[in-house]
Amino acid sequence: MGELWTIIDHEGGEVRKVSGEMLTAARRFAGEMNLDPAAVFAGTGFEHARERIGKFGGGKVYVAESEEFDRYLLQPQIDTIASLVRERKPSVVLFASVADGKDVASGVASKVGTGVVADVVDLEAQGERLVCTKAVFGGATVTKCQVEGSPQIICVKPNSFAAEQAPGEVVEERVDVTLSDDAKRARIVERVQQEAGGRPAVEEAAVIVSGGRGLQGPENFRIVEDLADALGAAVGASRAAVDAGWYPHQNQVGQTGKTVSPQLYIAVGISGAIQHRAGMQTSKTIVAINKDGEAPIFQLADFGLVGDLFKVVPALADEIRKRKGR
Ligand SMILES: Cc1cc2nc3c(=O)[nH]c(=O)nc-3n(C[C@H](O)[C@H](O)[C@H](O)COP(=O)(O)OP(=O)(O)OC[C@H]3O[C@@H](n4cnc5c(N)ncnc54)[C@H](O)[C@@H]3O)c2cc1C
Fold first, then answer.
1. What is the dihedral of CA 200, 219, 314, 324, to 10 degrees?
2. Using CB atoms within 10 A as the burial measure, which of 4, 146, 223, 260 is most buried?
3. If you measure from the C-alpha of residue 20 to the centroid of ligand 1, how many angstroms do you get, rounded to a whole number?
């Protein structure tokens, strides 16, 4: 029986949320496509990751564990996964559609001579193929496409599938890691830990509250942060707000920022320019708060609130806290 692989997205064995989502999707589609689900762990810290992988189904895990992965950029991962693909010939390989995941996926695809579809927000099994849903042309169109080659390499965006636990035993299969001199050409010389802060990262969050130029100044972002904290959400920003220096670029959503696909996206004082929509229009539920009832964001919103954000947003945060009993 062929295999459907999930490449575990992790940092030193700390498994990211998207991996649970992919393992859940992998179980479902492997069942529908008559494939065996299996996972691939490349990096360090497998003992730490094992428990989390077990929570989402367990099963066969190819473990390529070596300190070497931490010393160099992504080429060692590309080479290791590509040679495993050549040897085991899986039918489907799922990567997380995050910066590193997309880099490794495209490197593996070019080495084994197959195609890759990135930024996928939904999948449907049709016979032996997975039909992928993704936004294209700067978010102007949502399209369906599939990889014709083998394996089908697909990068799944965080929050595209709900993670459902299904505890299972992990059956570890160790993979030899032998790196060529070519794989060692780009070495990591320093790591700088980004300040984590108390909120989830924009690209991983299930709920995002984003602020735009309607906030009128950096000090007013605290209104957006307050609503985000009431919801346990991440804070996003439009480019207008970022360019004005009101919020860091790492929080920018849109064509030249992050593309996100949370369960809930709340746009506060954002007009809804095409470049902003490109980064958030695949969100499951979109709420827009804007004083201009004609703002383009309302064409996209599932729920629209026409009003002054300085009144609406604090009232909303208060009500949410009240209902949560905080
Ligand atoms: C190549 C390129 C790439 C780009 N990439 C991005 C990108 O990645 N992300 C991005 O966001 N943009 C991007 N842009 C910029 C984009 O075109 C818009 O300029 C930008 O998104 C506008 O940001 P905004 O909605 O915050 O501001 P505005 O368009 O000025 O909208 C502000 C909104 O706030 C509302 N408002 C004002 N006061 C209040 C109030 N008191 N209460 C409620 N509502 C209020 C207004 O009605 C208005 O709709 C890009 C542009 C280009 C050319």
1. 30
2. 4
3. 34
pTM of the full structure: 0.82
- Asked if 88 contacts 175 with a C-beta cutoff of 8 angstroms, the reply is no
3-184 domain in CATH 3.40.50.620?
Answer: yes
Atom from ligand 1 closest to the CA of residue 238: 11
Distance from residue 273's CA to the centre of ligand 1 (Å): 6
Quick check: 196 pLDDT over 70?
Answer: no
Q: For 40-61, what is each residue's pLDDT tens digit? A: 999 999 999 999 999 999 999 9
Q: How far is the CA of 211 from the centre of ligand 1 (A)?
A: 9
Closest-lying ligand 1 atom to the alpha carbon of residue 310: 41
The residue whose C-alpha atom lies closest to atom 51 belonging to ligand 1 is 275
Over 70: is that where the pLDDT of 164 sits? Answer: yes
pLDDT score at 200:
92
CA atoms of 203 and 76, how far apart (whole Å) = 25
For the domain spanning 207-323, the CATH number is 3.40.50.1220
